[in-house]
Amino acid sequence: MTEDPRLLPACRRQRAALLVLVSLHMVVALTMVISLVRPRQVDMTALDIPGLEELVTLAGLYVHWPYPPGWALLAVLSAVAWGHLRYAKRRQVPADRRAVLARRYRRALLAVLLAVPALKSPLIVDLIMWPGAWATAFLVCVPTTVYALGLVHCAQRFRRMPVPLLLGGAGWGAIVAGGFGATMNEWWSDFSLLHFPLPDNVLDVTYLKNIGLPMISGFFEELGKGAGVAILFLLYRRHVDSVVSGIVLGAAVGLGFNFGESLTYMAYFDGASAGFHFWGRQVAGLMAAHTAFTAVVGAGFGIARQLHSRSQQVTTIALGFCVAAGAHFCNNSMLDYVGKESHKWFTVNDTVHALVLTPAQFLLFQGPLVVLYVLLLRRGLRSQEGGLRVALANLPDAARAAITEPEAAVLLSPARRFRLKVDALRAAGSPRHGIAAYRRLARLHAAQLDLATDHWHRLRGEADPLAPDEATSRARVQAVRAALAGAGP
User: Same domain for 137 and 271?
Assistant: First the structure.
């Protein structure tokens, strides 16, 4: 009997991922409530500045401007979807057609949930205000970001997650996490000005905006990026199966956030300081800062994937987030302090400051996180190699035809796999045939590594219930092998 289609997804993981996304909206709603119920400590009228009251009111409305209309649209769309599905049921529309209808409504609701924080992304405002500088920064930052994504993807020496998953994480970091982080930072800047006493100089608003801002940005920016890691982990848990893949996914989300932030700072004031920010964010700090912070968050999810106790899983994920948020807060605070006080210690020209002092600060304040995720990655790769060695030595008889003993030795050596693919590329008669042979051999290795890795997880009792069974994985290997053997020159 066909199950009655419902608006919420039937899969438990999809519902959990939806809850994570809704939780970000709930956090924004909570900040709105806090701003409304907290009495103002600053009397705007007493300052006797014309138009200040109206300006403060407009600034407060701008902070959350996409959210109330977005929530209203969600409410209307949910009511329409619920009514439409009930009407279709009363009219005895076939269940498969109602399932298609429910799926379309779910996609529409998901698009709204994602679009609301995305509209707050600074990328949109900067594109409108400084289109020329934004376009130039975009073209300059794409190669470095793609290079970094390729670097973290190649760090997976054995099984690799799909490239679309990696790009999806980067997109979340650049757009959704960027918009959520901007909302929280702007909320705190507005809240601190309205609800804390002004200093002696009432125009010194910069001091108030900086009170707590490093902690707020460190916590909420990592929360937005961590939500993306959590959602992708829940939806694609089979591919995020160890600390290695967790670090890679977290680094991809961080690189996306860093890309969006780089565009924002480089486009400010029509690119007045674009060169310095490109050097600091896309060269010297490319694999540090946001990349390192969120890589540690992803490492927590990867480690939790291989734990069996629910309490240990939650604790590990929470510790990963706390380490990343705490390091982010310390980094922001120290960079801000050094930037303000360093001129009292010594005087250097701009070139020395950019080429020497800036990398030194990154090394001091962000280096420990880089060392941490590199060591975790190294340890995870060793664990993967040992696990695959055990799995390949204990393959069932039915899988011996899919992975022979010589092939097992090749799978355990990334260098030998690369050499075989290069030999296939060089042996072909033309570049087009060589590239095709290279890709076919790469697909064979990927299918065999999938089979071996899934078998390793079954031996450890941590197999993903939604992953293909062993027979399906073996059939995929045989199909790729047949295509490789039957391919002509």
Answer: yes
Residue 164 pLDDT exceeds 90? yes
Closest of 205, 189, 194 to residue 42, by C-alpha: 194
Residues whose CB falls within 8 Å of the CB of residue 426, separated by 6 or more in sequence, listed in order: 434
What confidence category does residue 192 fall into, taking pLDDT thresholds of 50, 70 and 90?
Answer: confident
Query: Do 266 and 358 lie in a common domain?
Result: yes
- pLDDT band, very low/low/confident/very high, at 58 (cuts 50, 70, 90): low
pLDDT value for 377: 95
Cβ atoms of 122 and 264 closer than 8 Å: yes
Total residue length of the chain: 489
Q: What is residue 48's three-state secondary structure?
A: coil
Q: What is the DSSP string of 406-444?
A: HHHHHHT-HHHHHHHHHHHHHHSSSHHHHHHHHHHHHHH
Co-location of 361 and 460 in the same domain: no
For residue 395, pLDDT over 90 is answered with no
Give the pair of three-digit tokens for residue 484. 């490789």
pLDDT of residue 50: 58
Let me know whether 177 and 288 are in one domain: yes
* 14 plus 129 within the same structural domain: no
462 burial class (0-12, 13-18, 19+ CB within 10 angstroms)?
middle
**DSSP secondary structure, 273-305, as one string:** THHHHIIIIIIITTTSHHHHHHHHHHHHHHHHH
Give the separation between CA 325 and CA 330, rounded to whole angstroms: 9
- In this prediction, residue 325 carries a pLDDT of 93
pLDDT higher than threshold 70 for residue 276: yes
User: What is the domain range of residue 82?
Assistant: 1-37+66-119
Backbone dihedral region for residue 201 (phi beyond 0: left; psi -120 to 50: alpha; all else: beta): beta
Alpha carbon of residue 119 to chain centroid: 18
Q: CB-hemisphere CA count at 13 Å for 50?
A: 0
3-state SS track over 18-37:
HHHHHHHHHHHHHHHHHHHH
Tell me the C-alpha distance between 447 and 453, whole Å: 10
Model pTM score: 0.90
Q: How confident is the model at residue 142 (pLDDT cuts 50, 70, 90)?
A: very high
Q: Rounded distance, CA 80 to CA 379, Å?
A: 51
Report the b/e string of 180-212 with b at 16+ CB within 10 A. Answer: bbbbbbbbbbbbbbbeeebeeeeeeeeebeeee
- Helix (H, G, I), strand (E, B), or coil: what is residue 43? coil
CA torsion, ordered 230, 235, 239, 244, to nearest 10 deg: 0
Produce one character per residue of 2-29: b if its CB has 16 or more CB atoms within 10 Å, e if not.
eeebeeebeeebbeebbebbeebbebbe
Tell me, yes or no, whether 115 and 125 share the same domain. Answer: no
CA distance 173 to 259: 9
Is a pLDDT exceeding 50 seen at residue 1? no
